[in-house]
Design brief:
Two copies of one chain form a homodimer. Chain A is α+β, with helices and mostly antiparallel strands and 488 residues long. Chain A has three domains: 252 residues, BirA Bifunctional Protein, domain 2 (2-Layer Sandwich), CATH 3.30.930; 103 residues, Anticodon-binding domain (Rossmann fold), CATH 3.40.50.800; 75 residues, C-terminal domain of ProRS (Translation Initiation Factor IF3). Chain A contains 15 helices and 23 strands. An eleven-stranded mixed β-sheet of chain A has the order 3-7-8-14-11-10-9-22-23-21-20. The two termini of chain A are 42 Å apart. The interface between A and B is large, with 60 and 60 residues.
């Protein structure tokens, strides 16, 4: 067992999440099998465990998109420079981080091509050709692809990767009303995917003009809070109004026979959520994966001696086979490692449930189930083990969500004054300061400059509470309730 | 109806498939809504109808991959130049068509990055780190992504696009035997996807050394024959042996405790198949989509006058709703176009079945169904319309496959002599000349030079027929039976 012991020491997470969050996150990334570094700086490999999470969430969102009438498309990954420049604010937002293709083989290209940082420009050029009359609208499309944004500062795995995977929804409507009505529909799809698959709560709201997407009229987001007290932006939705349709000539003949520019939206959900998921749920033992997105949901570990090996292995095999019909089960029948090493390893990898099965368990007609989220152990009768596993997996998911929601609630503080706001932001635990805001760029900038916090968004839920509130910065009447936090 | 008429004329296919195949294909691409040109030369947009075909086949293949134990991963799209150069034959095969990223924002990069033409090099660098012992094997991974190969000659939509979508399977085994056993499993997955989704028959066989993949020990392919008599390569499978594992240091400790290089395979299925599907099934009226991959499988066209509009529309709506429960149905209730224009339009777009419903049909308790593949019309009783639609869609799919298989068979000619071989290749209808081959590079090159035909592959099925055969080129004993054809 010498090798096993050495590997244990090498593989285990040594940093504490509560003490050194960033070192802990780095070790989680490096010591689990979720993603891997490659020799492309800022470019990650998604290993089977990591990609499984992504494809599971992706399919859930995709199915919901299809139900509400959105169809998938695919556009080229390289965008000619002249196209990228068509919408001024848009290109200014993206140009500094564009990766440029300048050569093909040995030939220098006549025009540089951008590896897509986002696809508005290449898509809308086509939309202008496809759309002629109101009968062609709405055009509701989506693509699943990867985009490249060359972050120069500190690429952080999953959170600030130079390449990330996402969905980019691009829809076109005949009226502003229809376009605006899409917002709640899309945010609901995203919220349900976050909750039901990644066990992630979030705060939905409107971004400020300063923080909105380059080229949008208004942006909306779902924001998360991670355990170090910093906020991180989740999926977003942008109302583009007629800004892009005017830049790209997306006109249609309306029912009155007149030419009109169309109304557009865009929206996205990215692999950044996988980083958020890790930060929020995982612990000092390693990853904690929500059951719906865990590639292995239940691992069966047989506990045997030389004397009873045959019998225990046989029962363990039968059990794993039975379980495999209702959950994603894996039998760890390797003989090279001790049960203890295996427990440790599967905890590191984040498998939601472990089943221990030994001679005494078999005789008693039961097994021992151990929850990854709470480390609780319980006996489960073999006769109804499938039902019990399903129930336990559901409980684990519910618990992960509840725990995260509680953390979010407990760390969102009402801040009436600037002193209270600063106390939250500058406090040891960070968190969100929810405060009245007059809506001025000056007050927003002052907070940023003096505390490092930005307005993550203006939560929909909180806006009804503006009456009588004052701006926490300047003391004038509050137009909005805004969430201030340091943000990734 | 003036507008409708004009659009009809503009939209219709005017070239004949049997007379001017390449002009016909160009018109199919330009006048349907399957794909669209963009301002990136050689880069296509997959519109909803086109992307639906791809995602449907993709899901079918993906499900089968998962069943046989292959898991998905994702690797960065940019590959550092030094990595691409690690396997000599590989880089020589790809370097001339690589798109190079040289700048990020305004900064010149220290090392050029290739937009992946294929991912061996970036993946195997990681595999070398992930694999330690025989317990880590087999490692069977796959990724769905897009790759870039800068074709300078004539990019042809779908067939020779500079960017295309594909699966790239990359698997690693402890023994040569296990690696080789994977071949038939993967080719069976591809053959079933081709048959059951795209209604495409193909010929599976081994490629010659001259035609094999850059860096592989041996390549295998499924080859199609399109109506102009040219062959086109379908999905392929490559046995890499230890060539890449030696270049990238993919070693493992075997059961005897010794270090050994692993055995690898790669395999791919690409959006090129969509071009093949169009060429083989479509006709002078437009696209013909196999029912399993048609976004709209049944279009309902109500036929009404001002007097009976309400009643007919109501019945048509009810029918479309009923059908929608078992097939992908669409009600074309637009009042701006005549039924004739609609028939024409849906034929152009390739919808497999059209249902016409008018007042007399309703009274008679039936509708008229029109097949896209044969233009046959038949009455279908309303009481069992769901069953009948399912049956008809199945028949259409079966007919498309049968028709294509018959064409392939009738245009594969046994060629005993060089004269017979040349007669096939240089004949008006082209096709495949199946001939004995001694296995020499000289004979292979001579045919290429003198007739323009290459060896598409050496069909598995035909190899038992070598006994007593002579090489059609040099007259020596035949080692193989090879298929010679002009090829896209």
């Amino acid at each position: 067992m010498t090798m096993a012991k050495e590997e244990t020491e090498k593989k285990g997470i040594t940093a504490k999440k509560s003490e050194n969050f960033s070192e802990w996150y780095t070790q989680i990334i490096e010591k689990t099998e979720f993603v891997g570094y490659t020799s492309v700086s800022g470019g990650l490999a998604f290993r089977p465990d990591g990609y499984f999470v992504w494809e599971t969430v992706q399919r859930a969102i995709d199915a919901q998109f299809k139900e509400i009438g959105i169809t998938n498309v695919y556009f080229p990954m390289l965008i000619p420079e002249h196209l990228l420049e068509k919408e001024k604010e848009h290109v200014e937002g993206f140009a500094p981080e564009v990766a440029w293709v300048t050569h093909a083989g040995k030939t220098k290209l006549d025009e540089r091509l951008a590896v897509r940082p986002t696809s508005e420009t290449i898509m809308y050029e086509s939309f202008a050709k496809w759309i002629r009359s109101w009968r062609d609208l709405p055009l509701r499309t989506n693509q699943w692809n990867s985009v490249m944004r060359w972050e120069f500062k500190h690429p952080t795995p999953l959170l600030r990767s130079r390449e990330f995977l996402w969905n980019e929804g691009h829809t076109v409507f005949a009226t502003r009303e229809e376009a605006e009505a899409e917002r709640d529909q899309i945010l609901a799809v995203y919220e349900s995917a976050l909750k039901n698959y990644l066990a992630l709560p979030g705060i939905a709201g409107k971004k400020t003009d300063k923080e909105k997407f380059a080229g949008a009229e208004a942006s909306y987001s779902i924001e998360h809070l991670v355990p170090d007290g910093w906020a991180i932006q989740g999926p977003d939705f942008h109302s583009d109004g007629q800004k892009f349709s005017k830049a790209f000539g997306i006109e249609f003949i309306n029912k009155k026979g007149e030419k009109e520019f169309a109304y557009q939206n865009t929206f996205a959900f990215s692999t950044r959520e996988l980083g958020t998921m890790i930060m929020i749920h995982s612990d000092d033992k390693g990853l904690v994966l929500p059951p719906p997105v865990a590639r292995v949901q239940v691992v069966v570990v047989p506990i045997f001696t030389d004397a009873n090996k045959e019998q225990v292995m046989k029962s363990a095999r039968e059990l794993a086979k039975r379980l495999g019909k209702t959950v994603r089960a894996y039998l760890d029948d390797s003989e090279a490692y001790s049960p203890g090493w295996k427990f440790h390893n599967w905890e590191l990898l984040g498998v939601p449930l472990r089943i221990e099965i030994g001679e005494r368990d078999i005789k008693a007609g039961k097994v021992v189930a151990v929850r990854r989220d709470t480390s609780e152990k319980c006996d489960v009768g073999l006769e109804a083990v499938e039902n019990e596993m399903g129930k336990l997996l559901g409980e684990i998911h519910g618990n992960l969500y509840k725990r995260a929601a509680k953390f979010l609630e407990e760390n969102t503080h009402d801040a009436k004054t600037y002193a209270e706001l600063k106390k939250v932001i500058e406090g040891k635990h960070g968190g969100i300061a929810q405060a009245g805001w007059c809506g001025s760029v000056e007050c927003e900038a002052k907070v940023k400059e003096e505390t490092g916090a930005k307005i993550t968004n203006m939560p929909f839920d909180a806006q009804k509470k503006t009456t009588g509130r004052r701006c926490a910065v300047c003391g004038k009447e509050a137009k909005f309730i805004a969430n201030f936090a340091k943000s990734y």
